[in-house]
Specification:
The structure is a single chain. The protein is 56% helix and 0% strand. The chain has helices at residues 10-35, 40-46, 49-67, 76-103, 111-118, 124-128, 130-149. Residues 151-156 and 162-167 have low confidence and may be disordered.
Length: 200
């Protein structure tokens, strides 16, 4: 019986990446919101680049994990997963900063602060977000490789090389039938000596 599993359509892969990106946005927002509630003992860590890198890694893994149930082909899945993780950190990080400030004792942030947070800019932390891109693209790329080499088993054909009637790469050998054991005569073969006196 063949057990071929077809590749997942591009639409299915894109849909799961978008779902993973939405979850990754929530993860990034949660990391940045929780940072505002750091205790004095944890404040130094939660405002450090290491904490932000951990958030990026988690966001990237969330997007990459969304690709694992699929069988993608080609570079589409790694590229889209990486971009989705990067966008998730960009959007989720800003949402988390704003929510953290709103939920803390400082209340509603000023318009100037909102403008500064939402203004697109490439700095050190945007460079750190490339870790999310690498994690998501790497996981999706690994899935592409395993889907390609993990192989669907091919159906067996009688007499094919490597089958039970021949050694691998060799043509099948002829096996003469053995009499007895309920086995009838070979179709098309001689039926033995003619009956005596020409009788039926």
């Amino acid at each position: 019986m063949p057990q071929n599993r077809p590749a997942t359509s591009n639409g299915g892969v894109i849909a799961l990446i978008l779902v993973g990106g939405a979850f990754a946005t929530g993860v990034a927002a949660l990391f940045m919101t929780v940072r505002s509630y750091a205790t004095p003992a944890m404040l130094g860590f939660r405002t450090s680049p290491a904490y932000f890198l951990i958030a990026c890694l988690f966001a990237g893994l969330v997007v990459g994990t969304a690709v694992l149930p699929t069988r993608p082909r080609g570079p589409l899945a790694p590229i889209l997963a990486g971009l989705s993780a990067y966008v998730a950190m960009e959007v989720g990080g800003r949402i988390g900063v704003i929510l953290g400030l709103m939920l803390s004792a400082q209340g509603m942030p000023s318009g100037e602060f909102l403008t500064a947070v939402l203004k697109p800019a490439f700095g050190r932390y945007q460079a750190f977000e490339l870790l999310a891109l690498v994690a998501a693209a790497g996981l999706a790329g690994l899935r592409v490789l395993t889907a390609k080499t993990g192989g669907a088993s091919q159906p067996w054909r009688p007499g094919a090389p490597g089958g039970p009637f021949g050694a691998p790469g060799q043509p099948p050998s002829y096996q003469p039938p053995f009499p007895g054991g309920g086995q009838g005569p070979v179709p098309g073969g001689p039926q033995g000596a003619p009956p005596p006196h020409g009788g039926a």
